[in-house]
Fold each of these.
Amino acid sequence: MRYLFTFFLLLFSFVLKSQVGSINISVFDEFSKKPLEATIKIQKRSDSISGNGRIQLDNIPSGSYTFEISAENYNTSYLYDINIIPNQNLSYSVGLNKSEIKSIQEVLITKKTYKTTAESPVSLRNITSEEIQKNAGSNRDISRAILSFPGVGSTATFRNDLFIRGGSSAENKFYIDGIEVPIINHFQTQGASGGPRGIITVDFIKDVDFYSGAFPAKRNGALSSLFEFNLKEARKDKLGYKAIVGLDDLQLMMDGPLSKDQSWSGLFSVRKSNLQLLFKAIGLPFLPSYYDATFKVSKKYKSGDELYFIGLGAIDKFEFNTNAKKTLSNLTLIDRLPVAPQWNYTFGAGYRHLVDNGNWLFTISRNMLDNQATKYYRNIETPDNLLFDYNSQEGENKIRIDRNFMLGDFVFSAGTNVNYAKYTNNSTIKSVNQSGLSFDQINADLKVFQYGFYVQSAHKFFDNKVQLSLGTRFDASTYSQQTDNPFDQFSPRFSLNYKFADRWAFNFNTGIYHALPAYTALGLKLNDVLVNRKTLKYIQNIHYVAGLEYNGKDNLRLTMEGYYKKYKNYPFSLRNQISLANIGADFGVVGSEPLDSRGFGETYGIEFLAQKRTLNNFYGILAYTFGYSKFSDGAGNLLPSSWDSRHILSVSAGKVLPRNWNFSARFRLQSGLPETPYDLIRSASVPIWNINNGPLQDFAKLNSLRGNVAHQLDLRTEKKWVFKKWQFTAYLDIINVYGSKTASNLPVVNLQRDNNDNGVIQNPNASPADQNYLLEVGSQDKNMPIPYFGFIFEF
């Protein structure tokens, strides 16, 4: 029996080792997008293969590989940690930049491990799909993987409210293959960008360019960050399938050729949430659920031109878990959270046309958000208890034209964008603010036209040691006389890259950036009047960034950057006397209130990054940020903003182990964020509590307190089993392993209740307007570890 077992074990090992796959790599000039004659080599192997444009590598044993792509007179590039799957033909595309030609006789070939561009020599990070999927604590969500980089903070373990270099979560922009996608999270905070779960399918991402500054002139509206998602190519041999059965969701994917000549190909994904089951199991009081879908269909022409169509959308639903443990925190959440269903979509098409001198890119898209929210006092659904009934839609139709070309040795890009938007809001809202009670009946129907144009150029000087980039853009809107002059939104920018040693560079960037306030603010209509039309302007942000960069051996990169950002014309709440720069990290809506543009602020700090891409099966990132974030109050004083986290530390590391095991860990520490205390005396008023459904913040003491130091350890492990025609992976991702203390230092406040669960009134004989509740004050519940595990099937 022992010999028989040994025989089958050896046979099984032989079968596994004989599993092979293939990869198809398209190599092109990054500037012109034209195919290149190139050579591809698998690192740690001596063999290589050459071809023109599209290069096929066959009979590669299953496993993880790094591919080196080189071409004459071009900088060498890499594809890192590509997982070769049995019986599959993977497809990737790589753009190469021309090398620095010193003379006719001498060409300097360099190896570029980390991405930079002429317009963005600083503040640009690139993360691949493989790095996202291996990142501990991200659970295959790009927004959480970005937390490993410097300058990036977050407010809660279960939400993707990213604040970058002290700016609010409303200041982030997102693009997929050149098409703007305003919403990338489920349960989006309207008027901001956060939510508890990402929408984008990480399996379809090739890589992501993350800018925390030095934004290219072709992108409008970014104040704090820009995400450029680059989708991968579909496989070329046949249709492939992938299924993920996870504790948090169920996802089905398909990709491959859609025509016999393989010129048409597609990526398709659908996903259904299991998150409500997980949240119910661990006792959370709210049960979100969702569906989403993503697709890309593309056509490659023999000329090199490409036509593609992109779409993604989501449906979000929300329920309360009435069986959750009745802790003071849970009861408070149930009292305050609304029932808030949403749906959204983005559809777009792009056409890239190659010409002798560069290329054109034409894109057209439409996106839409439908946001609803209903809340009754203590969730008792009677007409008298209705606190708000919110119904809003915002849709945009966008056209962009981009052109890359050269004039002599100067590289140019230029283009224009047009956006026609419609915003409607039919809502009834009761609310409490710093100045009193409000009862708003909103009936908005806003139509607004926006446009912009840009030009940017780059050139190298002094034997290619110095590279300069200069650009500008202009933006305008038909919203009002305050926004219709494009010269008021003149946005110049300048970048410098100076390579003063073989591995060292000094980088600098400065620029002015503008963004139109959210439609929730622009479209507020009360008594048939657009309340904010005469008071709102484009938000302006001036950036200064400088830093040193060191590219060492063995894929090591060290950077140190200092930044200073100066804001003006920030929307300011007239009712609460605070800048909207302090709001946006919670469920709900930002900006739907009377505003003006008196807000101003500044953020500044220093960042350090040490990054090592996979080498000898080890990878890691160390990031540290020290910074300040300050915005104005009603008196015009600069106070710490809600994003003023002085210290942010992130340490991520991973190891690829034998027998297809992978282990990774991430530790994050963030100093306490400012918090505004509660006005418990005013909160106890029966008329106020019955509308606010909870304690009221005292904005006269804006951000005068500090939350707790937030820290957590995340762990991820996965194991792959490779079979003849398919691959199976099991993974476990644990967020906040040891259950750290909650980041908020504010107390939990609710009503003292009688035997009928009604609030106890302190002075029942007083008139109704003067009655006060007895309040119960307690501590926040400790954060719970959140485990995510699942199984991945690839065919």
Note: The CA atoms of residues 583 and 715 lie 31 Å apart.
Amino acid sequence: MRRTLLAVLLAAAAVIAAPTTGTAQPSSPDREPGNGPERNEVATLDNAFQAQSVLAQGENQADRHQGYPRRTTLRTYPENTADKSIKLGLAPYHSLAPKLNALQQKSNRVSVEVVGQSGLGRDLYLVTLTAPESATETRIQERFRATVEEGRNVPAGLYKAPIWINNNIHGDEWEGTDGALRVIEHLATSNDADTKKLLQRSRIYFNLTANPDGRVAGTRANSAGFDLNRDFVTSSQPENRAMQDVVERTQPLMMLDEHGYVANTLIEPTTPPHGQNYDFDLYIKHGYANGLLMEKAVQALGHPEAAKPEIPFRDYPVGEWDGWAPIYTAQYAMYHGAVSYTIEIPMRVNRGDYDALPAAELQRRSKINTDVVEATIKTTLDYVDDNRRSLIENQTEMFRRGAAGEKQRYIPDGFVPGFGPEDRFSTEFPRAYVITNDRSAPAAARLVDQLVRHDVRVERAERSFTLGGKRYPAGSYVVDMHQPKRGLANVMLEQGSDISDKAPVMYDISGWSHRLLWGASVDVLKSGQFRFDGKPVTAASPTGAVDAAPGADLALTLTDQKDVSAANDLLSRGLELRRRDDGTIVVPARERAAAQEVADRYGVRFTTAKAGGEALQRKVIAAAVSADELQVLRESGFDVRTISTAVLNAGFDWSRIDALYVGAGLNYTQLNATAKAALDEFLKRGGVVTRGATGSRFNADAKLLQATPVAGWEDANGVVNVVNGTGPVGTNALPHSFVYSPQWFTNLGTGVTVEQRYGSTVIAAGHWHARDNGTGGQDAAAGQAAVVSGTAANGAKVVLFGTEPMFRNHPKGLYAQVARALFWSAS
């Protein structure tokens, strides 16, 4: 029987045409707002959390063509009695590897791979349940997967339906892991015929705990302080990169992201606005149907606490649980062909409840939650098995439309019960994007690498070409939008939309754009002839160069974070650099070899320097910052000492500090007399850079710059148009910035320079309207000062940001602004 099945598979694979040519081929191989108000209130500090790091081992992610089972002897971890899951009666992280090792020995249906490590070095487990496969059968399944991605039909009866279950992405939402363990054990050991047939027809992938560091510590965020369910198109965290690899590699037909906690249980689909880049007709027909079945399964458990599950699409007002941003697991997975869901289990056991409630009550709640997780997973497995042919055709059609460059379909009212005009969002895909080195070579390379990493197909021109009437040089990159995952390409590269009038509220950010915020030059070809000679890209070409003549001093212009990192690298070696008034960093001719080294390392370009400039040393920054700001500053190469009000009150040595950055957790008025005196003494010689409400308050309390902060609508966010000045921060800045709870500055004192203003049309993409009393809207912000600089009466050089130039490690093209502010203020 085995040989017969293999023969059928081989015959089926043989009739599948080879991938088409012409377009670059695959490169292979209670949601709560994160980083929101707490970004201003809580300073991120260096602490013992980082000291708990375990030694990371290399990943052992299997080759796609290796058969199943793929047994891995997982390293085990010492028992940790401080693991916060223990109190809930749930599985502590240290118990997972022994359980999985035992299951792998017990059953040939279960495979475990280590697909990465957490920030502290804990292994990330991908557990796969499927009937055994030979390497040849696995190669055939991979061919089927690739064929579906090409938008061509496969024999649905032979293609194993991939399903992905993601768990515990928020560390203090534990029970997804435990519900998944129940299902894993059942699938691995059950002898009933239905289970065996299911595993012959399916591959079921479990990311057992997406955030093991947060699971152990009982925190929503990972060890770096990031909300992982806000990081998917940025992929700044190792846990997100692992999840992104899993979804690209497995190409699931359906996926669940198990969260908590919403009373009664919440099951997506979402409310509008729905992402405008989706082929939403292909999502909603199965998305709503399985959502209703999961609702029934949860009700059938008989728990009064989960008797009335909520489906936002059906039950919530517009915007209260939207599917607009691609930053969430479920919404990101849709671009890889998945019908996907966020599930919110019902009984809160974290935060204050964790500390206040008796262990017995917490364990009762966790048992209910685990039951709900198990019910949603089992229902989804059954749904996929019952509808596998339709789901495979559904995914194939999504990719076919992309490759063919077809328009999105009009979805009529009533397409599924409740679908109406408020659910209708669409876009017009351009014919192509062209990425050049015109503005910043490192930024262009970074953007290309990011796109390729996310399975977007990019080609590099072999010779010069013309598109849309513009001539481009050889080496330019082209994103042909006739490709299977065009929705993902477009959601990263498009400008986006101002949806202020389309929803009264939005759950989280409403604007983002790699094209506008990442610092590269990107042109849009909307339509027209499309011919050029290119080759598929697996990685961007090197961009580093030293263009100055031998014997000449070298100049480095700080237009990108890579430029800043290169400058700080050289400074950390003790080299005698200079800084010109225009912000250019000058490297002496005698240090050409060091310049060449960092040019190659960071992809930056040195040109011939002009004479002049003052001596420059590496800057030490005292930083009261949020987690995302801390990561950016350290990635930029600054020597950062984290502080807060409490740290200063306990005594802080200012003697080696060159500049103070204030974004979160520092209140001047709450400093004791000794701390205030020490800070005031520093302010007579050191620089100050501030961001947001906390920074503006610090500026006013410390009596630095005369500039009155005006708060925009607190929930406003997105990509904004700006007009740059010619000061030390505005020079070379991008024409766009990012805001979240924006500010602007009025009543500027003598000598205060406007570095950047909001444009006459403020929002390029996002959500910003006035408060109910008419204040704080876009009209009020138009033309106002968004970033200012000046020298205080005590001599301190100060820069105030009303924008968010380091938000969630996303707007990478804005980081150099912050670096220029720090270098200038500390000079």
Note: The radius of gyration is 27 Å.
